[in-house]
Amino acid sequence: xxxxxxxxxTEAIGEAAIRAGCRLYFGYPITPQSExxxxxxxxxxxxxxxxxxxxxxxxxxxxxxxxxxxGHRVMTSTSSPGFSLMQEGVSYIAGAELPVVFVxxxxxxxxxxxxxxxxxxxxxxxxxxxxxxxxxxxxGPESLQExxxxxxxxxxIADKYRNPALILADGMLGQMMEPVEFPEFRDLSxxxxxxxxxxxxxxxxxxxxxxxxxxxxxxxxxxxLRYQEKYKKIIENEQMWEEYKTEDADIIxxxxxxxxxxxxxxxxxxxxxxxxxGLFRPITLWPYPYDALxxxxxxxxxxxxxxxxxxxxxxxxxxxxxxxxxxEFYGRTGGVVPTPxxxxxxxxxxx
Length: 351
Prior knowledge:
Helix content: 40-55%
Radius of gyration: 21 Å
Order of helices and strands: EHEHEHEHHEHEHEHEHEEHEEHEHEH
Strand content: 15-25%
Structural class: alpha/beta
Shape: globular
């Protein structure tokens, strides 16, 4: 068994990216993820990589576009207002089918908000914060170990489908410390070969073109239809979720990320009171595991969604349950993290 290392969340994600083969990082500091940018500034030169602090998030996302066009693994990290600034570039990158990995360590909003943990960027991440019909593959880790594993997976999935992927963490996950087991360094010679489309010199062949643009509306429509076929394959093959004590549960708590981790304590506390509670935790926030959650509607009496927001994922829970059973919601916002006791109190009131 590999040695476990005590590490901070942001730094764990950065090291996981390096070990996954990322050698190009472009970013701009913003709390609560500035330590990730700082970490990459130290580590990238040590692995013959490139670190560049851009003059803004807008500049960083366009650097990602150019760097990803060469076929190398590239990444940025930011927090909520910074990711908002990147949205035009995110849409361009999705339209150009470039395998970029984004990290958003979410903080309280809207606007400038504060630097405390939140989950209020769910809509932006899963429904498309930029323009057009595009999708990101979105992961919501509950722990630093899972964040490390999902970061590596995000790079592989981005390469597999030529589609950007997003790690949607929060300020609590970014700032906490836990023991983590890192994977071995990826042999760069084993990374996917992108020479069929990447811009790596056109000697002896026709030049490649990487763009999300076509002035002919019918050609652009065909591009969009092709993207949708790709999204269907991702939906079929890449859904991830966890169920905790759902086998006999008639109350299903639905939560993701660090709130999903907290919800396991709530499940245990509820069972001590004789309430058969269980947890459904989506790991891929897109593609959302609608069918897996829908199956629980046959046994459950009540679905209870808990978020660090005013209610965003709850809409996907309602879509999955499709009116078969009641769906209730409890949330805190502005960076306030719900405690197990207050959530349990609300649940008991509902019952």
